[in-house]
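Can anyone check this?
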Amino acid sequence: MNRHLQVIVFLSLFLLLSGCGRKTPVIPPQAAVPAAVQDLTQQFDATGVTLSWTYPTFSESGEKIDYVKTFQLYRNEVEAEDYCPSCPVVYNSSTGFVASTGKPGSALSYRDTSLKPHHHYTYKIVCRSGWNIVSADSNLVSFRWESPPAAPVGFTIKAEGGSLSLGWQSVTSLVDGRTVSSPIRYQLFRRERGDFAPIGDPVAGLSYTDKGLSSERKYFYKVKALRSVDDIDMVSPPSEVISGTPLDKTAPQPPSKLSVVLTGEGAKLLWEDAGEYGVIGYRVYRRLSAEEKYILIGETGRRSFSYVDKNMPDGKTIYYTLTAIDNASPPNESKYAGEVEVRR
């Protein structure tokens, strides 16, 4: 064997042996490809649409994954009159963004505010874990975009017993200034603590009474106008936020064990506290035997359980009664606490 041939054999053995080190397991392609997004959804407001979906948790083969490099969002835009529901979708724009802010199972979203009235839009999203490692298409989101209504104005609130009555003016224009040509409905939102939440279903009228509320709590409200387009609601900007506290119309219980005794100063009334929270005082009433209606002759504070009538008419039979009043504004007054009589 000549020297030249020996060198070739040596190099071949070296390369063969150096390639026989430990290898990492080969990953089947299906184990690396993320499963397709299946929950792409849409939510509208006055300026556009928010698309939401869940970061995939598994690969196509069912293996858990912990990494998606990017999400690619595709959009088709076509004038509404040219939209063909049965035709193949040709996407004319796409947006890619790195998935660094999410993790498997987390909620992700993308906001599109570049929508045009009288246009139809279709979206899909795919996941990329590397070069040529791409998921199947997500479900499609498709809708027609039209100008939303203008924000409601003239929002008012009136406090009533255990409820708040709200009202607003009719919305007659769109955000682009054109006149409304289709029915408008209204969605009311309330906030007690935290974020605003819708109250019931949208209404066609211009008023709403929110019942069953606590008179010890302040409530905040806003209202939005809705314009239905192909069974999708175009949502207006919100009205101004207003607030109110329901009136307390619940009267306290009357005092108990009312009695009267004659003293050198006059007729002394005695009673016991009803023990009810919110009572701030008592009102004392008197009438003569020939009279049908009581007249108010005095008041006492919360911790006073007696009252002396120093101006009793002489030679008359006199009847007394008593009520409790609470801290509402105006105060609620209890029923009469029975009746006692005395003659001087």
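Reply from J.R.: I decoded it. The CA atoms of residues 101 and 338 lie 71 Å apart.
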